[in-house]
Amino acid sequence: MSRRIHLALHPYGVGGPGQHGLWKDPLVAKNASIDVNYYIEQAKAAEHALFDALFVVDSQFINSTYPSHYLNRLEPLTLLSAVATHTKHLGLVGTASSTYNSPFNLARRFASLDHISAGRAGWNVVTSFDTGTSRNYGLDEHLDYTTRYGRALESVQVAQGLWDSYEDDAFPADVERGVFLDPSRLHALDHAGEHFKVAGPLNISRSPQGQPVIFQAGVSEEGRDLAARVAEGIYAPGGTLESAQEYYADIKKRTAAYGRDPEHIKVFIHGGPIVGATDEEARRREREIFEEDNDFASNLALLGRSFGAYDFSVHDLDAPFPDVAHLAEKGGRTGAGKIIERAKAEGLTLRQVAESVNAFRRSPFVGAPETVADTIEKWYDAGTLDGINLAFRNNDDLGRFVDGVVPLLQKRGLFRTEYEADTLRGNLGLPVPENRHTVARRSVND
Amino acid sequence: MSRRIHLALHPYGVGGPGQHGLWKDPLVAKNASIDVNYYIEQAKAAEHALFDALFVVDSQFINSTYPSHYLNRLEPLTLLSAVATHTKHLGLVGTASSTYNSPFNLARRFASLDHISAGRAGWNVVTSFDTGTSRNYGLDEHLDYTTRYGRALESVQVAQGLWDSYEDDAFPADVERGVFLDPSRLHALDHAGEHFKVAGPLNISRSPQGQPVIFQAGVSEEGRDLAARVAEGIYAPGGTLESAQEYYADIKKRTAAYGRDPEHIKVFIHGGPIVGATDEEARRREREIFEEDNDFASNLALLGRSFGAYDFSVHDLDAPFPDVAHLAEKGGRTGAGKIIERAKAEGLTLRQVAESVNAFRRSPFVGAPETVADTIEKWYDAGTLDGINLAFRNNDDLGRFVDGVVPLLQKRGLFRTEYEADTLRGNLGLPVPENRHTVARRSVND
């Protein structure tokens, strides 16, 4: 295997969790998160730098304490369709919830994006973190963790089944014979599972990459299992080198255990590189950013998000972390459970917990270009990542990485010098899944 | 009032109901219906001709007997987002079913399109004609007619409520005061109705046109009532001059009865103009098209679509029209009821009924440019239309209308010579709805 790192760009807009101060940055337009031209420019910059994909996250619940980018943002599929016609190679990965969408609708929209982009669509499957989302979809209670992950798996399986509705030779469009469709190449799905009944067929054919690429972001037991079963890309948390190694090895092992080639699941860790002319300058920029973002009220709200948008401000800040175990259990959010455990183990007050929630976003990739390239190489060689999902505060930060670090990675043979393909699968080195009905017919004929 | 006709373009792709032969036309690309560039070119041509909007229809159920365009087409919202960034004035009206979508999801996607297009989005609300759609969404039975129309009305009301989540001054983004959002300008909806419970708020702000424009295509009693209540545009069937007059007058009267300005609902009739150098040449082209489309098996399948994709080929073609009343009642499809009535009244065989299903698409606008302009003017003055939803077989047909008829309409003062506005509302002469919360606060302050 050649050593090769994949890079995706995760546009922050005016700032998500842990980037409370980003909207104040004079280099960030105040309407970035709803400005299609912001995304088109980000995508063009990413494509110019030969990145694999644009990665668009999402959520569907807000209240006024939520991060700026969450309050007012474009819906990922409409956004990525608009970006598609302004790019040619860049993958377009959009987040959509399997908890509050029908698989037929999802399958159709991603297939449509895959055609519009000529084979560059990816679906980042999420189960909706915010418990309040349920109330936007007619349910008083958020679906529980097990149900959500069961739905996620079945959603992907249904979507993949629907994406095979037409075999690749379904449309001869033969004027002489008067045959547009060959009906023997059209297949209903007739799925009846635990969560969904979907007859099909889908009303759209396969695109050049056969099927959109499945991404996932699983950390919990259920999340890792889902990823190992169906994901072809993962947005992983990163964390420390050791925790990233553990995660990476675990995912690859689980994937192999499901009979899949572990090379066919690409682990992207979150990375917000901060590049300076010198290590010291980069450290200074890191401190500046930390200052900008270190807003206590926002941190308290961010903490609350892990407990179902709970308002922690009703508690005494300097008393021990309150008993909110009942909020953590609902929906099985593992993050909330971990916060409680740590608060108990270390005897932290509410204030101390709130002050620490932002720390997890700290990037290992800080320094002069040579330092950052060294660190990336070290992490790659340590078996922590196949790719990095890069997030930058502004275009200057993006530029310093692209101009400073990317050429070093290229020189070391760690990053491409030209696109390998026009599809996301092609650039990620993922196989094009053959249509299941074509395979079945061939095996009958053999 | 100045006399002013609005024009929309309804792209046929490779051919929908009644255009069975269109895919064979050498001027139509075999992949038109899934080629984003086909739509971008159609949109650019429409914008060059100063049309009001691109109008994209939709459906979500197929089998192998369905029209070519239905079998394999892009999803409207992703399609229109891609088109948005290649146009500046053209309205972008997309069809989406209120029967098999959540209003939160719909509100969000159309709001996103409205931002991406800077105020040119329209939602054509449909309730899903094909009974088989239900089986793609987990239901064994199609929701009945009354339920579907009840959902449609409530969906629009919920979406409009969600679109007012933010007042126009909700985001001061004031760096000095450190205020991105003014929380007093953010409003949850807390809707609990017969069909939906939706808490809100929506996570996207209003666009330049305040809210996307609501289109509808109601012919039945329920459809007309829905249109009169909430529609700002209608895709009307047209038919004869007399039936169009009846429909137009009825819609305007019903709209006024709901306390709305009848000028604020624009009736577009379907029109597939056929323009030739002479009347005779146009008639010849009309006959050619009829020949191309007159495929008996396709007509039989098209007939079956009105009865839940029923396979009429199991019946004797030359026996009296079979008793399929039980299929017509299911879901209350009025079209099916009318077919049965007529077959009975006129004593038609199945073959005769199948041969006649295509006739309803016959356009009144056939002839030399002067003749077509005269007919349009006559229909306009007779009170049948505010606009025409134009569909053309291919770009030559489109070109003959744009180059031949449009200048005549302009000369007569019936069509614009430049866009009045950059938004769909602006060009249609529809008011921008003021945010309900802004209105409420002002009335409290008065």
UniProtKB/TrEMBL annotation, chains A, B:
Gene3D superfamilies associated with the record: Luciferase-like domain
GO molecular function: monooxygenase activity
Domain named Luciferase-like: residues: 33-384
SUPFAM superfamilies: Bacterial luciferase-like
EC number: 1.14.-.-
UniProt superkingdom: Bacteria
Record's keyword terms, sorted: Flavoprotein, FMN, Monooxygenase, Oxidoreductase
Enzyme class: oxidoreductase
Keyword Coiled coil in record: no
PANTHER family: ALKANESULFONATE MONOOXYGENASE-RELATED, C2H2 FINGER DOMAIN TRANSCRIPTION FACTOR (EUROFUNG)-RELATED
Family of this protein: Belongs to the NtaA/SnaA/DszA monooxygenase family.
Record protein name field: NtaA/DmoA family FMN-dependent monooxygenase
